[in-house]
Amino acid sequence: MKRPQQARGDQRRRQQGNHSATVDLWRSGGPLPELKPVAVAQDVRALIRSLGEPPMNGHSGVEHYFEAVIERAAAIAIALAFSADLLAGLDD
Question: Domain-by-domain residue ranges, the chain?
Fold first, then answer.
């Protein structure tokens, strides 16, 4: 049974693409940048609200779910910054 012409072409492309340069995964990286304090945003939902209503036909009120996800992500980011002692103070 013969393979279709396209399948043979795909196989040739895969074989040609496997000849990439080797990279040393265990090399030492450069110095890390200086850490900056993380400031807490006053309104984390402002960006998503500025985009308008999501383009989802027949699903009114879904922006509540988007806002809930954004608020949760912001809370986790603040907790991580606090745990690493990177949370900016009120005067920063």
Answer: 31-92
Phi and psi, residue 69, nearest 5°: -65, -40
pTM: 0.58
- Read off the tokens for 92: 């920063």
Question: How many Å separate Cα 26 from the centre of its chain?
Answer: 25
Structure tokens at 30: 């450069």
Alpha-carbon distance of 66 to 42, in angstroms, equals 17
Query: Binning pLDDT at 50, 70 and 90, where does residue 89 land?
Result: confident
Residue 67, judged by CB atoms within 10 A of its CB (0-12, 13-18, 19+), counts as middle
